[in-house]
Design brief:
512 residues, ion transport, mainly alpha, two-stranded antiparallel ribbon, 2 strands, membrane, transmembrane helix, flat, Bestrophin, RFP-TM, chloride channel-domain-containing protein
Length: 512
């Protein structure tokens, strides 16, 4: 996302150019400039004067400007709401992880055997569920970008341990595959031919509880490259997927981020008119085995308009929320949560589900077609008749004046169209990848907390609770039993006097 002032900030000029809407509006600007050129040349070089009265110019221009301003403001509201909803996901994920890691007890007793559960087993359980919380935001990101399924480098490693079938492995058939995996693999040959007698084969052993062993050579390759389709692509220097588990999958994993590749046409949009001539020659150079690009990777039309990705009916966030709710129900049955902690955990899960529904609402509810079509048609008619109305006053300046007006009005209209769905790969869209990585860092920070007993760190020499009035540490104050703080009748009064003095000192020291 480009969010800095392009006039004063450094960085790539070409990247900032792609963040503009010039490539989207240049055909319209060129067309209306040609109309203005035609009006000027005919009126100047022939006896015919094409100028008309400009009585309607001011009225129509004011109304059209207000409507375009309303269109842009409405789109920005959707952009801003999308950012707020992602903040809700971050807060709910953090709260849910804190409840699981801190409030769910580590010391447990197995009700079946009456023995204490190993500490490692409890930590693995809690950490695995927090990984599912992290996977939820990643699944939402892919859903909003029109990328269905679970086979992505940043999603699959965190949910690969979830069950595949509703029946035990030795009795499972294709009809027993759970929706999370069936929706992702319905077009995959590996799961189209599932049979009971072949479930234990090497190819399908990933459906069991044991992953395929990896050789050291494969492990080294997995750190250096990632799968996209049937081709290996070298990883960039920044590779956040290296922090995820390394697990084999029954099909190649798509990259976590798959934006459309930049080409010459993205910088010189007018060259797209020659693309049909070049296309037959470039097609011969492609490999026959190259898979078709997903919609998210297809850049622009021949006129330079961005191609929006198709909506993907993804149930992955719903399935992950169901597993989190199942874990919550299991904790409640075992009596491991206090009422307050149970309420906080349930509210966090509910917030995650409510937020994804609202994000889906923003993504799948564009402005009505009649409104967009009427507004664009009105703008085109206004710009078409503009040179006829201003020629008598502008003469040769009619051409640049019309071009500037078309650039201004069409640009604002296109900006509104671009930011009303801020979840794609455009440089003006929200940086969903960074949002997910921020959630990942926060959740790992939560699980790095050792949940120590407060007494182990409060009453030490590193704590000066009454500073600045009393700069002794907690250990000194507890050991000095002769001090007035320890008096039976006067101790509380002396402590309060010290705290009031601390307030007075802080109030004086922090004011200029």
């Amino acid at each position: 996302m480009v969010a800095t002032n392009p006039l004063f900030a450094g960085g790539s000029f070409y990247k900032k150019f792609q963040a503009t809407v010039i490539n989207d509006i240049w055909p319209e600007v060129a067309f209306f400039s040609l109309v203005a050129t035609m009006v000027t040349l005919v009126s100047k070089l022939t006896p015919h004067d094409l100028s008309i009265s400009n009585a309607m110019l001011t009225v129509l221009g004011t109304v059209l400007g207000l409507v375009i301003s309303f269109r842009t403001s409405t789109a920005y509201e959707r952009f801003s709401e999308g950012r707020k909803l992602w903040t809700n996901i971050a807060i709910a994920s953090r709260n849910l992880a804190q409840v699981i890691w801190i409030h769910v007890p580590f010391d447990r007793v197995d009700k079946a055997t009456g023995e204490k559960k190993p500490h490692l087993q409890v930590v693995i359980e809690k950490k695995s569920m927090i990984n599912l919380v992290q996977a939820y935001s990643v699944a939402v990101k892919h859903m909003l970008r029109g990328e269905g399924g679970v086979y992505y480098a940043d999603l699959y490693p965190m949910i690969s341990f979830l069950p595949r079938f509703s029946q035990p492995l030795d009795k499972a058939t294709e009809e027993d595959m759970l929706p999370l995996w069936k929706a992702s693999d319905m077009d995959h040959d590996a799961h189209r031919s599932i049979r009971t007698e072949t479930l234990m084969s090497t190819h399908m052993s990933r459906s069991a509880s044991s992953p395929l062993p990896q050789s050291s050579e494969d492990g080294e390759k997995s750190e250096k490259s990632s799968w996209f389709g049937s081709k290996r692509v070298k990883r960039a220097k920044f590779d956040p997927e290296m922090a995820l588990p390394v697990l084999p999958s029954e099909r190649p994993l798509l990259p976590a981020r798959n934006p459309p590749e930049s080409s010459l046409y993205d910088y010189f949009g007018f060259l797209r008119i020659f693309k049909p001539i070049i296309k037959p020659f470039s097609r011969r150079l492609r490999q026959v085995t190259t898979p078709p690009e997903p919609m998210s990777a297809r850049g622009r039309t021949i006129t330079g308009k961005r191609i929006r990705p198709e909506l993907a009916d993804s149930n992955v966030p719903v399935e992950i929320a169901l597993f989190l709710t199942t874990y919550f129900a299991s904790l409640m049955r075992q009596g491991l949560l206090t009422p307050a902690s149970a309420t906080a955990m349930n509210n966090a899960i509910t917030t995650l589900q409510d937020t994804v529904v609202n994000l889906e609402r923003i993504r799948s509810t564009p402005l009505p077609f009649a409104y967009q079509a009427h507004l664009r048609l009105s703008l085109w008619l206004y710009l078409f008749f503009l040179p006829f109305q201003v020629y008598s006053a502008f003469k040769w300046l009619t051409i640049p004046a019309t071009a500037f007006a078309a650039f201004l009005l069409c640009g604002f209209l296109e900006i509104g169209q671009e930011i009303e769905n801020p979840f794609n790969y455009d440089l003006n869209d929200l940086d969903l990848d960074q949002f997910c990585l921020a959630i990942q860092r926060e959740l790992h920070e939560v699980t790095a907390h050792t949940t120590p007993d407060p007494e182990s760190f409060i009453f030490t020499e590193w704590n000066q609770p009454f500073a600045p009035a009393d700069r002794r540490n907690a250990k000194e104050m507890l050991s000095d039993i002769e001090h007035a703080y320890h008096g039976l009748d006067t101790g509380v009064h002396h402590i309060r006097r010290t705290l009031i003095k601390s307030w007075a000192d802080v109030d004086e020291m922090t004011r200029k």
